[in-house]
Design brief:
Length: 422
């Protein structure tokens, strides 16, 4: 038994209608109040009726009424005006400092005890998610209404992360977008290295070189540390010479090349390939990168993201190492979708929020709904339970559900949990 469970019963009014206080006075809940997630009483601004008299104020919830003293509430003035003490077990009479008894509701026997069994089954479940054996019984409307809610919640969560980082760029949206897009090109394994590269090689440095892809590559490869070695071939040597000139001009100090990872990666995802593709994107988006979020058509952004590594990489994955099989190293559709889902759309949503451009927030949702769902373990496991995402908005919602609710056993804060327990 946890206080969280009792709070759930109280806030959702999952109690009998014929309630009585421990003094046998009739009690009805007009409004359970607002849950307080900070210090102080558990619920604010509740409204109750005791024996025909209406009271408005705060509610405190405990397993045992004696927990009041264990928690030291008798020494805290903010608890002295409680209008009702809600407990599972009334083992001690609690009084105000004036000596007046605080009205008490004992929940034992006041609700369907089967709810405890369901809750404890959820909390002790060893399944992938707590409700794995029962989630299929939730009706379609309730499920998809909840996915709509947490899909938006995920966009807000990502937006907060962007906003938190905005101050590091002196509120420069262009710079932040450039950094986050660079991070996305690391595709998890090299995301930290890519973002560090972008933070040390400011987008303003590229401003005079966007019409010259070779110079962009020299800047990126050089600052990334890949040119800080002996010359490996003619192309490597040309890039190195160009970077020596540019590094003196912009006073650049290259990163340690050891930060880039190659282990357990497909060759097409090697950092040199991704850096060359990123250079192609910078070259193609000669205007400000941030303008991407104001592009009207999703197809136009897809075209822009169809980046291809330079011809040198047709038969190379690393500098100086020729491979037999020749192929254009073009950013694939699934990679483009990940860039859209994880960076471009959330940034569009953030940009819209901070600039009061509701149309951008709406467009962010519509674009996610137009993108295929992600193919990952979370979506795959939900699919096995009969819940299949039909687009990226829903697959993002399922990720949010798993990470923020299922994995943390926040069943009482989840509408699916609510449906299964009500």
């Amino acid at each position: 038994m946890k206080e969280e469970f009792l709070s759930y019963l109280w806030s959702n009014k999952l109690l009998r209608n014929d309630l009585l206080t421990t003094d046998n006075q009739s009690l009805s809940i007009l409004s359970p109040g607002t849950l307080n997630r900070d210090s102080g009483p558990d619920f604010f601004n509740a409204r109750i009726n005791i024996q025909g008299q209406t009271w408005a104020g705060n509610i405190e919830i405990h397993i045992n009424s004696s927990d009041w003293k264990k928690h030291g509430h008798q020494n805290d003035d903010s608890y002295d005006n409680i209008i009702l003490h809600v407990v599972y077990n009334n083992d001690l009479i609690i009084k105000r400092k004036s000596g007046e008894k605080i009205p008490c509701l004992e929940l034992k026997g006041s609700f369907d005890e089967k709810l405890i069994d369901i809750y404890e089954d959820f909390m002790s479940s060893k399944a992938w998610i707590a409700c794995a054996n029962s989630i299929s019984s939730v009706d379609h409307l309730s499920l998809h209404s909840w996915l709509d809610t947490i899909g938006i919640e995920r966009l807000h969560d990502k937006s907060r992360l962007f906003i938190n980082d905005l101050h590091t760029t002196n509120n420069n949206f262009q710079e932040l977008f450039y950094q986050k897009l660079a991070r996305a090109f690391g595709f998890n394994t090299n995301s930290e290295a890519f973002e560090l590269l972008a933070k040390q090689l400011l987008s303003s440095v590229f401003a005079k070189h966007l019409d010259n892809k070779f110079q962009i590559e020299a800047l990126l490869f050089g600052q990334a540390g890949f040119l800080n070695t002996h010359s490996m071939d003619d192309y490597h040597n040309k890039l190195k010479k160009e970077f020596v000139f540019l590094s003196h001009k912009y006073k650049l100090k290259p990163l340690d090349v050891k930060i880039w990872k190659h282990l357990r990666m497909r060759p097409g995802n090697f950092p040199c390939i991704r850096i060359s593709q990123f250079a192609d994107l910078l070259h193609k988006s000669s205007a400000k990168l941030v303008n991407i979020v104001e592009t009207k058509k999703l197809g136009n952004v897809r075209d822009l993201l169809e980046c291809t590594a330079s011809a040198y990489w047709d038969n190379h994955y690393r500098f100086g190492e020729i491979v037999k099989k020749t192929s254009k190293k073009k950013l694939g559709k699934s990679s483009i979708n990940l860039l859209l889902i994880n960076t471009i759309v959330p940034f569009m949503f953030t940009y819209g929020r901070l600039n009061n451009m509701v149309e951008l927030e709406d467009k962010a949702v519509k674009w996610l709904e137009a993108i295929k769902p992600e193919n990952n373990n979370i979506c795959h496991n939900f699919n096995k339970l009969g819940i299949k995402a039909i687009n990226a908005f829903q697959s993002q919602a399922l990720i949010q559900l798993h990470k923020n609710y299922c994995r943390q056993r926040k069943c009482l804060h989840c509408r699916i949990g609510y449906k299964l327990m009500s």
